[in-house]
Amino acid sequence: MKKLIVIPVVVLGILVFAMCNKKSEAVPEGETILTGKASVLVDETLLPIMEDQVAVFESDYAGRINLMPRSEAEVIRGILEDSARIAVLARPLSAEERKYFNSKERFPRETQIGTDAIALIANKQNDTLIKLQDVLDVMQGKANPNLKGLVFDNLNSGTVSYLMKLAKIKDVPKTGVYSFNTNAEVVKFASENPGMVGVIGLNWLLQPTPEIESYLKNINILSVKSLTGSSFVYPSQNSLGEKTYPLARDLYIVNAQGYEGLGIGLASFVAGERGQRIILKSGLLPIRVPARKIVIRKGIEKKQ
Q1: What predicted TM-score, i.e. pTM, was given to this entire model?
Q2: Which fold would CATH assign to domain 2-115+249-286?
Q3: How far is it, in rounded angstroms, from Cα 130 to Cα 194?
Q4: Does 13 have pLDDT greater than 90?
Q5: Largest Cα–Cα distance of the chain, in whole Å?
Q6: CATH of segment(s) 116-248
Q7: Residues 93, 254: contact at Cβ < 8 Å?
Q8: Phi-psi category of 164—alpha, beta or left, where left has phi over 0 and alpha has psi -120 to 50?
Q9: pLDDT for 38-94, tens place per residue?
Q10: Are 80 and 89 in contact (CB under 8 A)?
Q11: Dist CA 172 CA 167 (whole Å)
């Protein structure tokens, strides 16, 4: 019965996709919207939620998805160079990226699937409040008495590019900004070094690996004051829904397959009711809240 509920959504996705794409390519043998194999480049800050989505998708259908976590810059380069044709990003394609695809007569479809947040974390000795302006000062290379430095997982990460855009800079400053190789290292460093602030996708804190979970007791997730706001806002499903958290970012599946393959099936699944329910339960904000069924009983049954 579960498959019968999801299939109409997937079929609708096929029709929309066919109308929106001018160029169609041959479908690889054995691949349909629900069968075959496909590789998907994933912004590594979003890996936990996509692992959940793929686990449920593969439990219901014969399609097999190979998730390839990369930095945002590597994901973009990979999909532009055609090393993979499906990608999960924490932003839409830029005008320049769309122009490149158009020049190759490729017309990728972008499906918004939810909203994530960039979380700022610090040692328990730190204040639990932080001003976004202080963060941007450090990104601009300015000395700030309230903040020793920012720590990222990767200088090519989407979290870095997001803050660079807010700070209106083209290059990362030589002082005050540091990077490691993994999200676990960011959490560990922030937990052990008062005054340093870690920058990490909220998804990793809501669905932590065992290694990250071991450090969580020593950190606080900080409430952030926007550039124009008067209050400090904690990153949560509620604040994302109310659009009050200043470091929110929309999530997209980019499908540049050019044919009716697993890219359509995966995007339709994640954007559909079951996929949106997975996002809701993860603590992130789905693009649409799944319906809840209420059963009204005529009376209360008494146990004998």
Answers
A1: 0.85
A2: D-Maltodextrin-Binding Protein; domain 2 (3.40.190)
A3: 14
A4: no
A5: 74
A6: 3.40.190.10
A7: yes
A8: alpha
A9: 999 999 999 999 999 999 999 999 999 999 999 999 999 999 999 999 999 999 999
A10: no
A11: 10
